[in-house]
Amino acid sequence: MNLASQIKAAAWRENLGGFRDRPRPEGARERAFNQLEVDGPDEDPVMALEAIIGAGVPAYLAAELHSARDGLAHARVRAERRGGHLAALAARAGAGTLAELVAACGRDVHTTARLLETLATEGHQLHPCARTRLGWDRRDRERYDLEATRPIRVRLVADRAGVLERSGDDLRNHPMLRGLDLPDPVLPVHPWQLEHRVLPGYRDLFASGRLEVLDATVPAWPTAAIRTLAGHDAPGFLKLALGIHVTSTRRDISPATALLGPRLAALLQAIDRIGHNGLESEHRILADTAGVWLPGSRELTALARSPLASIEPSDLVYVPATALTATSPVTGLSLAAEYARWSGDPDAWIRAYARLFAHPVLTKAEAGIGLEAHLQNSIIAMRGPDPVFPVSRDLGGARIHLPTLPWDLELPEDSPVNAASMDQVRSKVAYTLFQNHFASLVAVLERDLGLDGAAFWADLADEIGGRLSAAEREAYLGPKQATKALLTMRLHPGEEIETIVDNPLATARVHAHPTLDRHVRALQSPASAWIYDPAGVTAFLGSVREALGHTVLYAMKACANPAVLAAAAAAADGVECASGGELAAARAAGAKRLAFSGPAKTPADLAAAAACEVPLWMHAESVRELEGLAAAGFAGPVALRVNRGRALPGTHQMTGVPTPFGIDEAQVPAALERALDLGLDVVGFHLHAVSNCLEAEAYAWHVRDAVAWSRAAARGRFALRYVNVGGGLGADPRGARIDLAALAEGLRGLDAGGAELVFEPGRYAAAPAGWYVAEVLDLKTVRGQAFAVVRGGTHHFRLPAAWGYSHPFTVVPGPRTGPVWSDVEVRVCGELCTPRDVLNGGQFVSALAVGDRLVFANAGAYGWEISHDRFLGHPGPEQVVIG
């Protein structure tokens, strides 16, 4: 995005001047946490911001924006040249992607990581001033910014009189300085800082000889953090004070940060049992090893950091997470998309990646340590396309709640690291890990590979939800999260300002029953059961009727449990059936009205419909069926089911593609003529198009298009009284649901021309009101894969295998026998003699034992009804109804 577009995105996210209450910018797409992707014209950034706030932009902020625009334009030109160099390297190496080239560069992990970091041309994902460099001119940017073409010569200041203070190791032992003849302790200083801040500001210290600038220099390269430099001749990192305005503030370093860095790193490494799982995937800290500072000064301060080569094992490459969202010069995709596509399963790739970071970061937060886990502070160790373990760096932005820590640590009272409450710890994690880190990766994978972002967030919420306390659930999974209002804060310098954004991790979308756990524990062992809550079905059908304001028929094919069906028959305007058997069951359940669909109605079905005493609307599938209706003496209203229109986003396309459902659109005039000739009461059309559509805007288009087409098709032939748009209101098995409010807004003002508009939700009402429960019979590891084998499986709950997805679960402790597994990823398989009997292909659990019950939520639709329970003759599941 250009800078004007970045400003609009920030203003939207922060609702600056009520911007989010206005129409979305043309061509923009909203991602998670109200983050906007804008592809707009390259306007003057100051004018763009003034148009949003309706006032003039302060001079200081105008200067920052102009600096950012110039810096970004300059950086992109230089980055393009470097990209060409990387593309040429890939071609010579025969690598089709940058990811494949990186995988071949494991012998020099330090240089590989440094070069990848230069891809992060755009800077901070959520700040439009990411390329602001107030204090630097064009020549300075060329010499010292991320795209520098030659190493920076870091200067060394000798402490001749012992005026500097230190923390951690002697900095002279750091690999970048080792081998130099340095009899006195030294402080590394950025050359720009030395010339413009240090020598002019501390003349007396140098004139008196207490400090001395040495001739020796250390060559290093700027990273995305600008003031953090990576060694050129030797691996390692130096973080140096840099008195220019970068993004939103001057980038000096406080003495408190230099003091704390090595201490906190040593403590974290000493107690790495926090979150330890004993596996290769264990979280690593790239430690600050030494800090040096002049008391009372933020300008004479430095930190030294360990090299990547110090991390074990050594057969990996280390990819700065900030590079993953950057565009590969080889393919034009994001680097994350290259890895995810290379893995063969992008959905599994991003879930594995997120799991590696989420577990240790959340575990440390629980212990009072809120890591600043955004992209710039994160590194992922990769083996080929596979993420292996996470690495965190730069502890200066952490938030630490001293009363919660499991060990003693002293912090200066005024240190920003010192969190006044656990809320501050959780806010740091929520903002950096979820909003900055994961959201940025998911956005580029949605854009590049069509990733189902809603499903990712739902899966992540399910995965972490079972291990969170009530306070943590509110902070991480509540419907709203606070976010730093970075642009707003620049309009009000010195103020800490937050704004509220919508949280895609929100668990409010999942129907939770207050007594569910009690019912799960009460099941007879070994437990296998379906649990239904008819009241939930009633509530969800009520929400559809209230939101849409039109006729609602319950599609009983989703769930025909007698108690559920009875509740649906009472709550909806009627019931939609797809067979003679369903017709009889719906009548017995007390349906006030019926609709009869299905492509294979028999003469007996048509006769039963003709004799039905309950008002029944027939959805005719073919001309042959029309003739059968007339022969059976059917006198009720008839709607022609038509295959027309375009395919909609969802799991099953019913129309817009060749299917056996309905009458071909081109044959509708002839079918209508035949129906009318037969004397049938033709009232309209049945235009069911898709199953499980989660996009409200697309579904609203379908409804409007269906009404317009129906009016045109009926004109001059018969009076249109009925337009049935079918079902398809999405309720993903992983918890995501179509936004009813957005759908209702999309239908506002729709004119059906006097015809009755009918919706047929089934999944939307039934899915969140049903749970499948399976008890763990065995735990074992085979060829490195951990398995939980359960009583039951796909013969009771076929949908995960049929759709090829992993259904998330929670663990309810049962009558445990044997050892308890801790912090492990398990694949959940059933009792059938087929490797396809898989309910979940891999989910992390904090604790699991034989006897525990796994609860699969959002399972009430197309669960027991579509399963193959006769295979192998295992006993069926218990059927439990709760209220």
TrEMBL record:
Keywords: Pyridoxal phosphate. InterPro entries: Aerobactin_biosyn_IucA/IucC_N, Ala_racemase/Decarboxylase_C, De-COase2_N, IucA/IucC-like_C, LucA/IucC-like, Orn/DAP/Arg_de-COase, Orn_de-COase, PLP-binding_barrel. One of its GO terms (molecular function) is acid-amino acid ligase activity. Residues 116-325 form the Aerobactin siderophore biosynthesis IucA/IucC N-terminal domain. Residues 348-494 form the Aerobactin siderophore biosynthesis IucA/IucC-like C-terminal domain. The modification N6-(pyridoxal phosphate)lysine is found at K557. It comes from the Bacteria. Pathway: Siderophore biosynthesis. SUPFAM superfamilies: Alanine racemase C-terminal domain-like (SSF50621), PLP-binding barrel (SSF51419). Its cofactor is pyridoxal 5'-phosphate. Pfam families: FhuF, IucA_IucC, Orn_Arg_deC_N. GO terms for biological process: polyamine biosynthetic process; siderophore biosynthetic process. The active site is at C833. Residues 544-767 form the Orn/DAP/Arg decarboxylase 2 N-terminal domain. Belongs to the IucA/IucC family. This is Diaminopimelate decarboxylase. The lineage of its organism: Bacteria, Bacillati, Actinomycetota, Actinomycetes, Glycomycetales.
